């Protein structure tokens, strides 16, 4: 019709024809405009799948993403933008992140959306840095986080709860959580003008269970909020259980690392069984791997990673590098694994989540970064971004003063959660509404028939220092599967078990509650055992708030323990808080070197850097973000459980050191400070 209009030689007919078309076009335009005003914007981006061309479509054009994982809760908020900009400079066009339920909902009915928990601000910054976003709200996320990101209080509220199933109590709590989370994200979905293109439903579920009633419910609960404005998807490990994770009408993807790149064609075939058409996606391509205490740090060759990435991209697949930036499990957020890869028993994750990722723990560019960037540049246009990395500075040695015995009357008053809870059996961490830290369990010993008599405990989660009348007599360990030790007659009358939560299991989630379970019993002369009852349970949260409160109360006092405790190297009377001052003239990233110390927690300016355990290794240093420091005096608190270091020069006071370089590949042993 248009061709007839412009092809006619008679001007009058042409004008008449075009006027008619103009009127029609205007009328149609008005109608479309009215329709657009009453519904979703027609000019907003749309993210869909072309099942014939096996590709994503963005704004009507074929699209594929090369994404990197960065979890907002593993970096301080002031560092979010710099981390994201470094990622974008590598050529990535998408960001992948989890949402951690337990961070935002630390206690029943209590919610946190500020500071490191301001997920909306993080996602808005990601949009400003030109990322499309792949959102993974779980509710279970694994991520090597305590309890896989599920709140600890669920175990107390529902003692028989079955996580990640159609358990009515579990789905009711997920429904409450999503009602808090999802409306906050509405403006960020691609269909509403934002840049969230995909939203995950559950996480590697096929390898966990086969409850499709639960998965279908979670799909519908997620879609209730997403409402077609982003694509729902699943991720499953490529094995014979993939079908258990597939959800009807939800896009399926898989995950694998360089160790399986040689079987990529077979993996794609397995994925095609679940998802016959559409783009191929590796939602977790591993450039590194997680590390536990008491094992070697996991490393992956950068060139092998880059070569494998190019292989994946050669299939026109989309891919997410997990992790691109790993960061740090600050505080007590690191999780644990059980029976992983055939290993026996419980293994706690280290504090660092460096992961041997593409960027290092401080957000710096690595050799692996440059190799990956070169690989991405063969498939996507690299942006022109200038990076300004933070300085890494060595501040040297800081002497520490022993300032508070945790189990003393003063220590209990300052750092415990309150009055001890009395009960026949020991209370769990969860019954005490304690996320992490320590619990002191105390009871009176009966007269002993034997010398020595064996003390036996059914189960300890996870580690206990055993005292009699405040004198250390041994250590029990879930990791080492040591649940008994001998007690000698006449040692004292009060038994004290100081139990540490080393991190709840994050994979194959079960009820990994913490504390003492089963009977605590004492060997009798007749070969039997006498259960010990009537316990006092004292909770020590050891969170930022309690440490800051104690510091503020001590600010005007001369704090130093008596000379006997101050001289102790092996802490035979319980944990001690050591304090010191770091003087800073120029602020930069640094690493707290804990060589020679035993096991404990470190705080700078009241900020919990996380757990240290250099005698076990491999992690020796704790990352200290420059954003935590200030010019002038910075407070340092070390809560040591086992033993203090002594300086190589023989100073009376123990010491630590602030280095410019991380040590994540160390070996256990007493390494003297310089």
TrEMBL record:
Residue stretches making up the Beta-galactosidase 1-like first all-beta domain: 426-525
GO biological process, one term: carbohydrate metabolic process
Protein name per its UniProtKB record: Beta-galactosidase
Domain Beta-galactosidase galactose-binding: 575-634
Segments forming domain Glycoside hydrolase 35 catalytic: 55-377
Domain of life: Eukaryota
Position of the signal peptide: 1-33
Keywords from the UniProt entry: Glycoprotein, Glycosidase, Hydrolase, Signal
Family as reported in the entry's similarity comment: Belongs to the glycosyl hydrolase 35 family.
């Amino acid at each position: 019709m248009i061709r007839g209009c412009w092809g006619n030689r008679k001007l009058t007919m042409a004008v008449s024809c075009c006027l008619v078309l103009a009127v029609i076009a205007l009328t149609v335009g008005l109608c479309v405009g009215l329709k657009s005003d009453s519904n979703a914007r027609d000019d907003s981006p749309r993210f869909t799948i072309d099942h014939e061309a096996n590709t994503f479509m963005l704004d009507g054009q074929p699209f594929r993403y090369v994404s990197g994982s960065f979890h907002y809760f593993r970096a301080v908020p002031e560092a979010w933008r710099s981390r994201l900009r470094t990622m974008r400079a590598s050529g990535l066009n998408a960001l992948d992140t989890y949402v951690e339920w337990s961070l935002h909902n630390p206690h029943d009915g209590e919610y946190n959306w500020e500071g490191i928990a301001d997920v909306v601000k993080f996602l808005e910054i990601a949009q400003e840095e030109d990322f499309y976003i792949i959102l993974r709200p779980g509710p279970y996320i694994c991520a090597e986080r305590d309890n896989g990101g599920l709140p600890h209080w669920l175990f107390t509220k529902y003692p028989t709860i079955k996580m990640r199933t159609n358990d009515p109590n579990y789905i009711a709590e997920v429904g409450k959580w999503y009602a808090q989370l999802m409306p906050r994200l509405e403006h960020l979905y691609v269909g509403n003008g934002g840049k969230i293109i995909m939203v995950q439903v559950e996480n590697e579920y096929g390898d966990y269970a086969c409850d499709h009633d639960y998965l279908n419910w979670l799909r519908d609960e997620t879609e209730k909020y997403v409402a077609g404005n982003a694509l729902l998807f699943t991720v499953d490990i490529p094995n014979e259980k993939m079908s258990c994770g597939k959800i009807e009408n939800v896009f399926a993807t898989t995950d694998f690392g360089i160790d399986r790149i040689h079987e990529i064609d077979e993996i794609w075939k397995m994925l095609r069984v679940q998802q016959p058409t559409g783009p191929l996606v590796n939602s977790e391509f591993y450039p590194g791997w997680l590390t536990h205490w008491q094992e070697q740090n996991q490393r992956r060759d950068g060139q092998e990673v880059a070569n494998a990435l190019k292989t994946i991209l050669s299939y026109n697949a989309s891919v997410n590098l997990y992790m691109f930036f790993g960061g740090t499990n600050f505080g007590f957020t690191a999780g644990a694994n059980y029976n992983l890869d055939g290993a026996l028993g419980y293994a706690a994750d280290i504090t660092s989540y460096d992961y041997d990722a593409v960027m290092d723990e401080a957000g710096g560019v690595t050799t692996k970064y440059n190799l990956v960037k070169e690989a991405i540049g063969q498939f996507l246009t690299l942006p022109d971004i200038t990076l300004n990395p933070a300085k890494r500075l060595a501040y040297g040695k800081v002497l520490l003063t022993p300032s508070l015995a945790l189990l003393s009357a003063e220590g209990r008053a300052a750092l415990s959660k309150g009055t001890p809870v009395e009960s026949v059996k020991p209370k769990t961490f969860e019954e005490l509404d304690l996320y992490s830290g320590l619990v002191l369990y105390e009871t009176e010993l009966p007269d002993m028939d034997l010398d020595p008599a064996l003390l036996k405990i059914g189960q300890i989660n996870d580690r206990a220092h055993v005292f009699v009348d405040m004198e250390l007599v041994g250590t029990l360990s879930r990791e080492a599967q040591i649940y008994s030790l001998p007690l000698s007659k006449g040692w004292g009358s009060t038994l004290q078990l100081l139990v540490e939560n080393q991190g709840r299991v994050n994979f194959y989630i079960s009820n990994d509650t913490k504390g003492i379970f089963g009977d605590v019993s004492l060997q009798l002369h007749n070969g039997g055992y006498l259960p010990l009852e009537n316990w006092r349970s004292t909770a020590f949260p050891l969170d930022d708030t309690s440490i800051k409160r104690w510091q503020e109360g001590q600010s005007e006092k001369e704090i130093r323990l008596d000379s006997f405790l101050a001289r102790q190297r092996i802490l035979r009377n319980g944990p001690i808080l050591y304090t010191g001052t770091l003087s800073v003239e120029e602020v930069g990233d640094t690493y707290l070197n804990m060589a020679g110390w035993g096991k404990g927690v470190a705080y700078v300016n009241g900020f919990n850097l996380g757990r240290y355990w250099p005698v076990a290794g491999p992690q020796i240093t704790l990352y200290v973000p420059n954003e935590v420091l200030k010019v002038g005096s910075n407070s340092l608190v070390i809560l040591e459980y086992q033993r203090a270091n002594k300086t190589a020069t023989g100073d009376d006071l123990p010491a630590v050191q602030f280095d410019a370089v991380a040590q994540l590949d160390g070996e256990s042993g007493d390494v003297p400070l310089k």
